Amino acid sequence: MTTLCYANKTCAIGIHVLLEEIGKPYDLKIVDFSKGEQKTPEYKKLNPKGKVAALVRDDGSVLTEYAAIATWLALTNPDKKLMPTDPEGMARTLEALDFVVGTVHMLSWRLWRRPDAYSANPAEHDQLKERGMNAMLDGLAVIDDQLSGKDYLVGDFSIADTALYYVEYWAADVAGWQLPPNVKAHFERMKARPSVQVSRKQEGVA
To answer: From CA 61, how far away is CA 72, in angstroms rounded?
Structure first.
């Protein structure tokens, strides 16, 4: 069976890496938010939340939210070792994943990337973007401490690192910000993984 996943340009990078790590056939469809495709009746029928990501499973059921999709893929592909099996390791992985997706990405990067989503007044956009940038860099500073002495967020590579990678990608390659040293080392380490190289080639990034 071919895994079908819908994502926008941002989270598609992490999903792409995750699906490459698993190594099974997949079809990744980009939902173009600039065209409002997440609001179309066709997509809302698939995911009434009007959000991404959305994973269509073999039985036709749909699973949404990056963290839930990543966790399900990890648990249903245990041979790929994308999540620790002990309770402490699983909890720490979900803790790291939730912070990256829910705080560093959604509450920080989106504020910088889409200030118009928070204010209809263009005069306020520069202030909102600065607030988003500072909040994201503060979040990455927290992650930098967590990465001290470790190659990956919870020691071994996990689903949490796929989310951190897409945040690093947008911060460094798109926004051009300087990453903290441990986060930068993690970013370089991720770029050496074959799954990430496939994703970067598709993105047209050197």
So the answer is: 13
Strand-pair category, 26-30 with 54-56: unpaired
Domain enclosing residue 8, as ranges: 3-80
9-22 and 194-203 are packed helices; what angle lies between their axes, rounded to 10 degrees? Answer: 140
DSSP for residue 101: I
Task: Supply the pLDDT for residue 43.
Answer: 84
CATH (domain of 184): 1.20.1050.10
Q: pLDDT means per 10 residues in the chain (206 residues)?
A: 73 86 88 81 85 87 92 96 96 96 84 86 92 92 97 96 94 93 98 93 74
Domain boundary among 56, 80, 104: 80
Strand partners, 156: 154
Q: What is the pLDDT of residue 42?
A: 87
**Rounded distance, CA 193 to CA 131, Å?**
33
Parallel, antiparallel or unpaired: strands 3-7 and 26-30: parallel
- 6 forms beta bridges with 29, 54
Question: Model's pTM, two decimal places?
Answer: 0.90
Helices then strands, counting H and E runs in the chain, come out as 9, 4
**CA 87 → CA 10, 69, 78, 90, 163, distances in Å?**
30, 19, 15, 5, 21
